[in-house]
Amino acid sequence: xxxxxxxxxxxxxxxxxxxxxxxxxxxxxxxxxxxxxxxxxxxxxxxxxxxxxxxxxxxxxxxxxxxxxxxxxxxxxxxxxxxxxxxxxxxxxxxxxxxxxxxxxxxxxxxxxxxxxxxxxxxxxxxxxxxxxxxxxxxxxxxxxxxxxxxxxxxxxxxxxxxxxxxxxxxxxxxxxxxxxxxxxxxxxxxxxxxxxxxxxxxxxxxxxxxxxxxxxxxxxxxxxxxxxxxxxxxxxxxxxxxxxxxxxxxxxxxxxxxxxxxxxxxxxxxxxxxxxxxxxxxxxxxxxxxxxxxxxxxxxxxxxxxxxxxxxxxxxxxxxxxxxxxxxxxxxxxxxxxxxxxxxxxxxxxxxxxxxxxxxxxxxxxxxxxxxxxxxxxxxxxxxxxxxxxxxxxxxxxxxxxxxxxxxxxxxxxxxxxxxxxxxxxxxxxxxxxxxxxxxxxxxxxxxxxxxxxxxxxxxxxxxxxxxxxxxxxxxxxxxxxxxxxxxxxxxxxxxxxxxxxxxxxxxxxxxxxxxxxxxxxxxxxx
Length: 528
Hints:
There is one protein chain. The protein is α/β, with parallel strands linked by helices. It has 3 domains: 17-258, 2-enoyl-CoA Hydratase, Chain A, domain 1 (Alpha-Beta Complex); 282-439 and 482-511, 2-enoyl-CoA Hydratase, Chain A, domain 1, CATH 3.90.226.10; 445-481, no CATH class. The chain is 38% helix and 17% strand. The chain contains 20 helices and 17 strands. The strands form 3 sheets. Strands 10, 11, 12, 13, 14, 15, 16 and 17 form an 8-stranded mixed beta sheet that branches. The protein has a 7-stranded mixed beta sheet with strand order 1-2-3-4-5-7-9, sandwiched between helices. A two-stranded parallel ribbon has the order 6-8. Helix 12 (349-364) links the parallel strand 12 (331-338) and strand 13. Helix 4 (116-132) packs parallel to helix 5 and helix 16 crosses helix 18. The protein is elongated. The chain starts with 14 loop residues before the first helix and ends in an 18-residue tail after the last helix. The model has no long low-confidence stretch (mean pLDDT 90).
């Protein structure tokens, strides 16, 4: 008996043609509505949505979702304009081999304006990112809500805001501003963890220059009202500012390399070529013993961390406090440091809010915290008091007290008053509090303390200046010498500055599996 001969079904008539039709359709979607639209985008110094995604993701890893979607709106001529993609490109790919979700407004289609179908695509990709436990990057270049669709477009923004909030502290969310972002659309980036902006093209504002002029009489340009440098250095809305899209997207990739995929994973570890026990023989020359002399704390951070590399957050805003990501022996740490080169390193409203936000992010994503302290106190002044330094300074205090990640603080030189307590002192929960031998930890500086305590005695003395000098030295010897805090159990050790890196590497290795739990609660109520 012979075996039956298998029958090969013929290819359905026209299938090859349909496949070619599909390829041509997707090619046209990728190219945009017409060549002129792409040329206009390039003429503004801007890339297309697909070009941006190609720069962000590893080559050949992007998988697009819902590229064929079209709106179903009618009226105002919309029924005659139904381009595929509906002005937003959504999907996922990889950055350094790790999954990342992305959506990118396509300004060539409806000016990137958000309609109901457009919003539905964004909602879907946000839901996918949260379900997959992977970071979400939005490439923003849109004209706001699609006016022709009315309230349906506005409701689309509501769905985005709700998902931003639900994903907060669960997956990293990064907004990249590559064009205009006005009105309610600006709130989505503000709800995300980090905002990147590009000079000359990025703009964010709630009401535009025309409305501002009509209501207040103030004349201002788009760039002057909500440009990249305004939000990077004045409002603090943008965390990173760059000159072009290529360098901006390269830094987004670098930031992602420092972050975990979600709040259930640890940040990625890389092999460290920098010896963990490397001595910092030059660090003593960076920090003057005289507490009135300034220095750049970023140089100290660079000495401590792997290969001198750090990614500073909010580099141009609240510059009296430095916040940065870096690595110690290949492990990511978040660094918060007083900056004596700016306002002598005092804490003020903006520095407190900057530090609080950074500490909260690190705590949410299990990034250990290293705090370098050289703080003379909170900035005094009527404006600071009236603008709420008490409640806004308390944000930093709350963030540290609430943080359960490994926390190590090092007093480099001085730490006075309430600012010392706030900057992750042991009394608010630092796991290890270390100091350099030149430190001064006290309620206030010896000069000011002597003027308060010995005011009458100095005034009655035959030689007030000599008496004051003697009393200052007396106070310093009794309460401000480097070992007073250690003798009273307020710090864990006084260390040689040259051994700081080695001590910190060992400390964070010991704390790597720290287990700390907060009381059961729905959520706290931090000061606003």
